[in-house]
Amino acid sequence: MLKMAVLLSGSGRTLDNFHDRIQIGILHAEIQVVISSSADALGLEKARKYGYPAFHAVGNPAVNEILGRYDIELIALAGYLKLYEPPSHLLRAVLNIHPSLIPSFCGPGFYGHHVHEAVKARGCKVSGCTVHFANEVYDEGPIVVQKCVSLTDADTPDDIADKVFAKECEAFPEAINMVDHKGIDYFWDKG
């Protein structure tokens, strides 16, 4: 069972998903701490309601100082809207989710609704999400899980976002469980 930190910036929908799945025993992780880049993030309020230590921190040094107080094996970026640089002992232990099928619609500027608008503008017939390890370059770390959704011409960017988020709720916990089972190094060393 992985000891995990969750970094977020917004509503905490992914935190809700993690918490619910931990409670029913299908996500093999323990949330040690939740940190937000935004002081008024709803995700912080939810974390406190769930009983997790929850903090607002600005910048990597402040985030890492807080993480240093906890026994952390994995960091989950759950809608964290900053480029995160972990401490050296956690360099390979940062897991992120991206709302497209990498390598499509990723990199600088492609986050959140911008991705779904680009998918719609391109006329894609499928989209999805990718759970991957993060490194110093946006969306380039080793891929752990990808899930696909079918799109119709009538789908709006909001429709695409809803379909993709439903898959994210499956993919992120699945990826965490895979990392728990196979170990972090497996994903970095298999290439």
How would you describe the overall organization of this protein?
The chain is α/β, with parallel strands linked by helices and 191 residues long. It is globular and about 50 Å long. The mean pLDDT is 94. Helices cover 37% and strands 23% of the residues. It has 2 domains: 1-91, 3-Layer(aba) Sandwich (Rossmann fold), CATH 3.40.50.170; 98-130 and 144-170 and 181-191, no CATH class. The chain has helices at residues 13-23, 42-50, 60-67, 113-122, 157-182, 184-189; strands at residues 2-8, 29-36, 54-56, 74-77, 94-98, 126-133, 143-150. Strands 3-2-1-4-5-6-7 form a 7-stranded mixed beta sheet, sandwiched between helices.
Keyword list:
23% strand; single chain; 191 residues; globular; 2 domains
Question: What's the topology here?
Answer:
Elements: E1 2-8, H1 13-23, E2 29-36, H2 42-50, E3 54-56, H3 60-67, E4 74-77, E5 94-98, H4 113-122, E6 126-133, E7 143-150, H5 157-182, H6 184-189
Parallel strand pairs: 1-2, 1-4, 2-3, 4-5
Antiparallel strand pairs: 5-6, 6-7
Helix pairs in contact: 1-2, 4-5
